[in-house]
Every structure is written in C-alpha cells, then in structure tokens.
Amino acid sequence: MFHNILVPLDGSLAAESALKPAGELAQAFAGQIHLIRCLLSSPSADFASSAVNFHEACLHDEVEAREYLSEMEVQLRARGLNVQSQVLPGAAPEQIAKFAQQHRADLIVLTSHGRSGFSRLMLGSVAETLARIAPCPIMILRQPSSQDSSPNPTAQPI
User: Fold this and answer.
1) Across-strand partners of 140?
2) Residue 73 and residue 79: Cα distance in Å, rounded?
3) DSSP H or E run through 82
4) pLDDT of amino acid 118
5) What is the pTM of this model?
6) How many angstroms separate the Cα of 101 from the Cα of each of 35, 44, 62?
7) What CATH number labels 4-142?
8) Which of 34, 1, 56, 28 is nearest to 100 (CA)?
9) What is the pLDDT of residues 109-150, one digit of tens each?
10) How confident is the model at residue 59, as a pLDDT?
C-alpha cells in the first residue's frame, strides 16, 4: 500500500519527528523512504553582494543540506530501512508535489510547524499548500511541543 513514502525535512527536530511514523509504515509495507530537503537560493550568512560570494554561499548551503540528509539516511538504514535522499532547489510545496508526482509517492509524511497569525501570513503554510496540490495522500503530524521547531535558515519551513 505505502511503497514510496516521501518525507520532506527542513533541518528541525520537529520535522524529523515525521521519520518515526514514516519508518514504521515503510517497515510494515516493505517500502522505501525518500527524504528531500528544499532550499531557496538565499544563503544563511551575511555575504557581500558579489555574485561569487553569493554562489559560494549557495554551494555551502547545498553541501550542508546533503550532509544533513546523509546523516538521516544512516540513521534510517541502521533500522533496516531502504532510503534515498535528494536536495531540491526552490519553494517547498511545489518541489515536494513535483517530486511526489515524478517518483509516484504513495504518501507524504510531514510535521506542521503549527504557525499562526502573522508568522503564518508571512511564511505561509507549506503543509496547507501541499494539502491542496499534492498528487497523493498526506499525513500531517502535529509538531511535538517539546522539540525545537527552528529550521535551518536556508531551508523553507514545513
């Protein structure tokens, strides 16, 4: 039933809490987990306005994202799971939906950061947008109250 499970991560502990239920489903259905991380082209550090520095900062953020996903892969493989990961450029909802379509995902599992008010207006809700445009079912988990929800500044919040 759930053979291709997509888990978008943004570097926060809250987003990582989606890994446990996704892993349980993957084990139950002998499925595969696809980890993805979406990066906007805005480096996290203050860099001079030169194109060279901007490019270097973007490359640094991409390397950091790949290392992060690699660490998550190691943890999941240690549990006997089949895992792949990929860093995607661009806005999270659109890239997640596109990836899900291209890889025929059966399910997307993610944690909502539960923003409301002004922060939701300014940042938007990736989970809400994704619920409207995703080509497959979505399991949206509530953010654990005791975990850090601060994403890496280079990733778009989920």
Assistant:
1) 110
2) 10
3) strand 82-89
4) 47
5) 0.80
6) 15, 30, 23
7) 3.40.50.620
8) 34
9) 999 876 554 444 444 588 888 989 999 999 999 876 654 445
10) 83
Q: Which two tokens stand for residue 133?
A: 């445009």
Taking the C-alpha atoms of residue 142 and residue 61, their distance in angstroms, rounded to an integer, is: 27
Strands of the sheet containing 82-89, edge to edge, are 82-89, 32-39, 4-8, 107-112, 138-142
- Where on the phi/psi map is residue 106: left (φ > 0), alpha (ψ -120 to 50), or beta? alpha
Residue with tokens 């089949």: 82
What residue ranges do the domains of the chain occupy?
Answer: 4-142
CA-to-CA distance for 98 and 88, rounded, in angstroms?
Answer: 10
* pLDDT, tens only, 69-90: 999 999 999 999 999 999 999 9
DSSP secondary structure string, 45-71? S---S-HHHHHHHHHHHHHHHHHHHHH
For 99-122, b/e burial (b = at least 16 CB within 10 A) is bbeebebbbbbbbbbebeeeeeee
CA separation for the pair 18, 58 (Å, rounded)? 27
